[in-house]
Amino acid sequence: MDGSDAVVRLAAVSRRFGDVTAVDGVDLAVPAGSLTALLGPSGCGKTTTLRMIAGYERPTAGQIFIDGRDATTLAPEKRNIGMVFQSYALFPHLTVAKNVGFGLKVRGVAREEIRTRVHAALELVGLSDLSGRRPRELSGGQQQRVALARAIAIRPSVLLLDEPLSNLDARLRVQMRAELARIQRESGITTILVTHDQEEALQLADQMVILDSGRVAQAGHPREIFPAPASRFVATFLGYENFLTLPGRGLVTIRPEHVEVLPESDPDPDGGQSRPGTISHITYRGTDSLVTLDVAGETVLAAVKDSDLREGTRVRAVFPDDHVVSLPS
Ligand SMILES: Nc1ncnc2c1ncn2[C@@H]1O[C@H](COP(=O)(O)OP(=O)(O)OP(=O)(O)O)[C@@H](O)[C@H]1O
After folding, report:
1. Ligand 1 proximity of 235 Cβ (cutoff 6 Å)
2. This prediction's pTM
3. Does 1 score more than 70 pLDDT?
4. Are the CB atoms for 49 and 26 separated by under 8 Å?
5. 43 C-beta closer than 6 A to ligand 1
6. Where are the domains of the chain?
7. Of 24, 92, 166, 266, most Cβ neighbours within 10 A?
8. Average pLDDT along the chain
9. Which CATH number fits domain 243-326: 1.10.1740.10, 1.10.10.10, 2.40.50.140, 3.30.1050.10?
10. Ligand 1 atom index nearest CA of 194
11. ipTM for the whole predicted complex goes beyond 0.90
12. Which residues pair with 298 in a beta bridge?
């Protein structure tokens, strides 16, 4: 897309802090109603990018457009942005309803209208019954929903979420992820989510933007990126663990669950290449076992279901063509 229908657009945006270039020439277009996930390892520039969109940080170069307007130097409160932080930042002395209505009150919205919008926002996040409680009387997941409702109630042009699920325990995180997907779909609100969790991005995003040292390493729909990472960096970040050179293919990667382990005496299979190797280690993981193979001095990981395999056994590691991804070397 050329970005003309984008709610948020970044054009060659950079941000330096002294010698550190936190964000380095990022172009980004976030279409209306979509969810874009900014993703990458610690220090890659996710939060700085989000803070520049929110207006808490100024770019040292480039431009930011919101709703088609140049917002590069606009104050945060003039940007019509809803934000949810890791810490939720709820007001402890205010009830849930007052927390959710806070942004509307400071914007001078009439009392009746505030009541209607607070009700709708609490309904959307499934908290209508708890509107009179204070934040300390809520679970982490419920506080999270209040923060979301508060951000949505102002009807922002864009909702910015900075690692919103990272303070929740693993089970709740998975539940809230599904809930966030539903809320975003139902509200149709344009959303930018910062996360270092690739599963979260894969599940939620219409567009994934993977950052590496402040630059866009790859951007696209999860279904495009996941099967075809453009570089070793992206592949590693998406959980591809095997990197090896295959004749006719050059440098390739393959996920452990796609490597097959056969008896050494088996013939080369159709539709794939294979290598003899030795099992150096087996880790039982409940639903499968992770088998570490030494293949001519290279380490190959294979996730196998049934395992009467033993350490020290000679085997054949098979790399099926349709799961082998070529990488630039
Ligand atoms: N105010 C600042 N002053 C100096 N350096 C900064 C500042 N803010 C960020 N940086 C640096 O910019 C780089 C990018 O930081 P940023 O917080 O954007 O990364 P991140 O991808 O959000 O990381 P994390 O996942 O750890 O939060 C890092 O090297 C960081 O140390």
Report:
1. no
2. 0.87
3. no
4. yes
5. yes
6. 6-234, 243-326
7. 24
8. 91
9. 2.40.50.140
10. 22
11. yes
12. 295
